[in-house]
Amino acid sequence: QVQLVESGGGLVQAGGSLRLSCAASGRTFSTYAMGWFRQAPGKEREFVAAITWSGGNPYYAGFVKGRFTISRDNAKNTEYLQMNSLKHEDTAVYYCTAGGRRYSSSQAYRFDYSYDYWGQGTQVTVSS
């Protein structure tokens, strides 16, 4: 099993920045891919970003548009999501996720079924 714990959420004004962290523990060799999803009130959970073990070729949802950066520190078993130029519509609970499967196409990581482990989520609220 892998345990994922998010931190770094909070309240920020539109245009501001936040950095989310996700610490993994347990069977961390099962964290080949790590990602972030989010769920706004009344909406379905949606993909935000993903990164594989090497850290190369991170994959982002279209609405990120260069505002968010995903990264990971394998020595610390931690992934990060740097969020800049935040908008009110970015308000959501952000979930960290991890999985051990490898896909030939990075697009596979935009689907929640590609992951095995999920964190409890951290609230991000952007005031307009």
| Helix/strand structural class | mainly beta
Number of helices: 0
Task: Compute the average pLDDT.
Answer: 94
What gyration radius follows from the Cα positions, in whole Å? 14 Å
Keywords for this entry:
7-stranded mixed beta sheet, 4-stranded antiparallel beta sheet, globular, 128 residues, 0% helix, 11 strands, single chain
Could you describe the 3D structure shown?
This protein has 128 residues and is an all-beta fold. It is 0% helix and 49% strand. Strands 2, 4, 5, 6, 9, 10 and 11 form a 7-stranded mixed sheet that branches. Strand 4 (33-39) and strand 5 form a beta hairpin.
Sum this structure up briefly.
This protein is mainly β and about 130 residues long. The protein has strands at about 1-5, 10-15, 20-25, 35-40, 45-50, 60, 70-75, 80-85, 90-100, 115-120, 120-125.
What secondary-structure arrangement, pairings included, does this model have?
Blueprint (H helix, E strand, L loop, with lengths): L1 E6 L2 E4 L4 E9 L6 E7 L6 E7 L6 E2 L7 E6 L4 E6 L8 E8 L17 E2 L3 E6 L1
Parallel strand pairs: 2-11
Antiparallel strand pairs: 1-3, 3-8, 4-5, 4-9, 5-6, 7-8, 9-10, 9-11
